[in-house]
Amino acid sequence: LHQLHNNSKKGVDFILLASVFCLLFIGLMAVKGSSQPLWEMWMKRGIGIAFFFKRQLTYILLGILVLYLISKVNYLVFKTISLFAFILGLVLLVFVLFCAPMKGVHRWIRVGPVGFMPSALANVSLILYLSRYISMKSEVRNNNINLRDTIALTILMFGVPSYLMALQPNAPAVVIYGVIGVGILFISGFRLRSYFQILIFTALLIFGRYVVLGYETDRLRGWITQLTDFHKGSYQVFQSLIALGSGGLTGVGYGNSVQKFLYLPEIHTDFIAAYIGEEFGFLGILIILGLYLVFVFRGFLIAVRVEDTFGKLVASGITLSIGIPAIIHLGVVVGLLPVVGVALPLVSYQGSLIILQLFSVGILLNISSQTGCYLPFWYVIKSSATECLSKIIRKIDIVNDKLEKHPLYRVAALLAILITILVGIIQLVIWLKK
Amino acid sequence: MKSILGFSELRRHRRASVMNQIFVVIIILLALRFFYFQILKHPELLQIREKQSLRIERVSALRGEILDRDGVVLTESKPAKSLYACPKEVSSKEWLSKKLEDITGISEIKILKQLNSEKQFVCIKRKIDDSLAIRLDAYGIRGLYLLTENKRYYPLHEISADVLGFVDIDNQGLSGLELCYNAVLNGRDGLRRTYYTGWGTEIPSRTVMLIPPSNGEDVHISLSKDVQKIVEEELRRYAFKYDIAGGIVIVMEPYTGEILAMADYPFFDPNSFLKYSADIYNTNGAIQELVESKPILFMIMTAGGIERKELSLKESSFGKPKLADYFSSFREIDTELLNSLSHYLGKSIKSEYLRLFGVGRKTGIDLPFESDGALSLYTLRYGGEGIFMTPIQITETMAIVANDGIATPPVLAKKQTQGAMKNEENSSKSNRVILKGTSHVLKQALLNSVNRNTREMHIEGYPIGGIGFEFLDRSGQPLAGAGFTGFKDDNDPENRFVVFTMIKIPRDSKKESDFVKVAQKLFRTITYETIRVLELKEIDNERKSSLR
After folding, report:
1. Helix (H, G, I), strand (E, B) or coil at A386
2. Could you give the CA distance from residue A331 to residue A273 in angstroms, rounded to a whole number?
3. A309-333 vs B4-35: helix axis angle to the nearest 10?
4. Is the pTM of this model over 0.80?
5. Which of A91, B229, B442, B521 lies most in the core, judged by the most C-beta atoms within 10 Å?
């Protein structure tokens, strides 16, 4: 209790929090703009004005509340409940198969107007339980893992949930789940031999099913064609590329998208980056990429900073759980990956899932507060300006000193400088042209 | 002892940074890919988008209205709904086509064929009835759209249909004044740039008007709705009473040439002209029917004889009785008399006066497809047979006599919104055909003939003159019709008007009746009613001006 009390008083990573809020704000505005033709069309069926915007706003506000509360709870609490969370995830994955299908798939559990996706909970529970499992093993077994553990990991933690997800069917969830797990295993520092054992088992389990059943091979074939000639790609990707291409450098302006008018299906969820690219152009996309880069960078920084193995792995896992879907989404939108239907985390309209994502971010923030080198969350809000400023400067100095020593810092700093110069030059050219 | 955990921690740090670097590389790759499409492929993709969703469209101008001499609207352009479908949105095409067959009456197979087409948007039926549109809207069927267009509507239905004509589905004039003044009424279409949604519906907020349409101008015509209504009611009444197959009436002001009424029975409703036989809506007998009217030819030749001092109405000439008597007993004017007169006058006088009175030549009335009449070189040289005139030509001949020998071409359109009709400058102005004295002699003879012999035609206080005629159909049937044409005289030339009435009887009619008498009665009724209407208007106008 003493530790809990102490932790809650320490500051959280403000930069990470700022990037999350920026993404939430951009997402809210993008959902408002992109969903307009959709609710207008569905008004006859009883959907109200700006339906998606209102819902997204509600979920974001609820999510921020959850984020605040979770950031106040010591993350070690989740270590104790991780097994329960994992079992709950499995139970819900079984339960969803008996729920009424939506568009032919069993992905959502509906309770009244609220929908819930068990595969997203499975991701969080995997992060928590896998981190606990590895942290406990590493403490007693010199980071080595025997065959029994390999089989247990592969079948229990990867095999069963991903098979259940494949039954829904939900290929993107399987991929994200697998990549997060593999990512955590990689960061956990396992010897590569053990790592590859698990990797091969997992790969066999996941892809074996698809190869045997021949599921989605057409989609993969279409994707290969699309990589060579974008004109021949799937309808959605082609429309997405039209949206991006017509946006150009600075975009067509907020609210002026044409592709949102029923050319690009699911624009407010699975293709929101295309919408942002159309209305805000390449510069808008650079901002989105930059914000995710900041998030991932800060996430891994927290993982590096925290001394506790569990915290380290959870921080990495949460960073991956936001970063990987973002990369998949952006890859799909730009035609690099096959269409899988993955929402852009923190940005797309995805119902109650945004609460779960902010819940994860809350854990990440709590871990960041353990390191004790971030700004106090309440400083920014409550402290007087002068007092805060001096403390901020002092803290920044400390952070900077520590950061400069880190090898990643140079890469990120160089990239940030390059992006800033590039954006500056482009803005200057536009200004001169006008 | 070296801490195992410490060693592992170092590895974890390294791996986390490797993971971070992988992310950085992926994000740079993504940024490059975005750069490729958003910057390098921008022109190509923009072109694809515009081809897909942008359309440059013609904006049809609002068609101008046609108004009568008192400003009564005779045609209206009303918004009407057109039924379109978006096949992509339709869940069950079979069900929808069946449902639409029940509602609209269009064949199910035809609708299904359209719904199965590759098009994004198909037209089911254009300009449907309001009641049908309300019904369809109430159903709220997914994939069906009602778009607004302008529909030409004739609020007075059959009244003056032959003069007004009608338009096609695209609001282009097909006959009558609608065709004649199509360019004036139509205006100039505009151009607009608009974006369409993926389902083929327009995005109103993205529409930019490139060239605004300039709406058509209103055309004010000389026709009087009240006179026209009386004429049509009377024609219908007479048709019912005397079982006649057709009838033509023209009322014209000789001083201005303005047509007050023009009707060709049987009538049709231009709102639904396709329900009628093509002979009814495609022809206007008043300007196309060919009539061999010997009394009129006799009058023209007599006018020539008087002008050249070869004849006198009060004396007998070329072995015939007094010519003035023929006006009252017009039945005696036969081919033999016309031939004798023709020989007596000589071909130069005859042909000159026939030309002066406009026989064999269009009157120039502003209606399409006017007939020339028939005047061959042979008939011009020899005899008086085989000369055919149209009702409007006969009316014009009578108008010359009534207007003291001055011919004013018949005209319908008086002015357009922006002032005088553009074609007015080109049309021939009034010109003197015969001397005032000659016209006076003829007028007197016509007035006397009505006063003396057809007393039942008398209207108290108003001098009426005129002449009846029977005519043979060109196909040689014994009696194909009869008519009467005359005028209401007045000291003020502006208060005179000419009336032409003609009835046609069916070839197989066995009903024995003096059809000239019927035409005379019709003439008298219409003249009487026209006087009444015009005088009531005069009183009304005076009252209005005194109130002011």
Report:
1. helix
2. 10
3. 10
4. no
5. B442
A304 in contact with B, Cβ within 8 Å? yes
DSSP letters, B459-522, are BTTB-EEEEEEEE--TT--S--EEEEEEEE--SSGGG-EEEEEEEE--TT------HHHHHHHH
Could you say which of B8, B26, B39 has the minimum Cβ distance to residue A189? B8
Is A258 within 8 Å of B26 when comparing Cβ atoms? no
Q: Would you give the DSSP letter of residue B271? A: G
Q: How far is CA B468 from CA B208, B246, B450, in A?
A: 64, 17, 10
Cβ distance of A261 and B44 shorter than 8 Å? no
Rounded Cα–Cα distance for residues B127 and B133 (Å):
9
Q: How far apart are CA B268 and CA A171, in angstroms?
A: 69
Question: CA-CA distance, B435 to B414, in Å (whole number)?
Answer: 28
Decide if A245 and B20 are in contact by the 8 Å CB cutoff: no
Residues A205 and A158 sit within 8 Å (Cβ to Cβ): yes
pLDDT tens for the 548 residues of chain B, in order: 333 344 467 777 788 888 888 999 999 999 999 999 999 999 999 999 888 888 887 777 888 999 999 899 999 888 888 888 878 778 888 888 888 888 888 888 888 888 888 776 788 888 888 888 888 888 878 778 787 788 899 999 999 999 999 998 888 899 999 999 998 888 888 888 888 887 767 787 888 888 998 888 999 999 999 999 999 999 999 888 888 888 999 999 999 999 999 999 999 999 988 899 888 898 899 999 888 888 898 899 889 888 888 887 777 777 777 777 777 777 778 778 888 888 888 888 888 888 899 888 899 898 999 998 887 666 666 655 678 899 999 999 999 999 999 999 999 988 877 777 765 544 557 889 999 999 999 998 888 888 776 667 788 888 899 988 887 655 555 446 888 889 988 888 888 999 999 998 765 665 556 788 888 889 999 999 999 988 877 777 777 777 76
Rg (CA), chain A: 22
Rg (CA), chain B: 36
Token pair recorded at residue B404: 């003291």
* Residue carrying the six token digits 């151009």: B191
Q: Among all chains, which residue has been given the structure tokens 């409940």?
A: A81
Residues B135, B103 contacting (CB under 8 angstroms): yes
Supply the ipTM of this predicted assembly. 0.81
Flag if B203 and A258 touch (Cβ within 8 Å).
yes
List the helix and strand counts (H, then E) for chain A.
Answer: 18, 2
- State which amino acid sits at residue A146: N
Whether the CB-CB separation of B185 and B62 falls below 8 Å is answered with no
The DSSP bridge partners found for residue B73 are B67
Beta B144-153 vs B76-85: how paired, if at all?
Answer: antiparallel
CB-based contacts of B7-10 (< 8 A; 24+ apart in sequence): B8/A138, B8/A143, B8/A189, B9/A189
φ, ψ for residue B460, nearest 5 deg: -55, 125
Dist. CA B152–CA B126, nearest whole Å: 13
DSSP B205: G
Pick the residue from chain A with its C-alpha nearest to B15.
A187
Residues of A in contact with B46 (CB under 8 A): 245-246, 248
Contact indicator for B398, B317 with CB cutoff of 8 Å: no
| CA separation for the pair A399, A387 (Å, rounded) | 18
Nearest to A143 among B8, B41, B197 (CB): B8
Set of chain A residues whose Cβ sits within 8 Å of the Cβ of B12: 187-189, 309, 312
Could B16 and A304 be called an inter-chain contact, meaning their C-beta atoms sit closer than 8 Å? Answer: yes
- Distance (Å, rounded) from C-alpha B157 to C-alpha B161? 7
Nearest Cα residue to A20 out of A55, A67, A84, A62: A67
What is the C-alpha to C-alpha distance for residues A179 and A164, in angstroms, rounded to an integer? 16
